[in-house]
Here is the input.
Amino acid sequence: MLGLAAIVFLTVAAAGSLFWFNWWIRNSWVRVYPICHDGDTLVEFTEPMTDEAFELYARYMLLDSAEYVRVINKTVYSKRWYWLFGDGEHLQITGLVADALAKAHGQKGGRDSHCREIANNGTLRDGWYHAEYYPPNWVRDNLLLISFGVRRERIGYYTPVGRFLKRFEISDNEPKP
Here is the structure.
């Protein structure tokens, strides 16, 4: 009887955790920074950028993703799923920003070291930058498995879990600076 109670408790706890994770990843906001390569590692470029660099970054972030990206008080926020599972797009945006900054400063763009280009052309401290680690591929891949298709919801394909969780959306859910 005790074993059965433990199994029921663990099952309810696991289901509740999955429900909370899926609601959280769909409905919470996170501050977003440019994502770039620092050696073999993906990092978030957290160094304060010049107004010109920030405006370029904000414009590119809002271009195709205004539904789940917000710019508030010179800070870019996105839905947590877009931050975590949109690394390919974020790298492309960082590359576009780095190229535009390089061309604005009379340099040839298109190099692979986007962090260094943004640091050279888009920060007050030329060439030096601060970055924080972005979650590695294995973390993102494992979380994607338990997110029940959150990435595809962007194009209108909702799994039964996504449709169910849509009922629990908060209407005034906006990022809080």
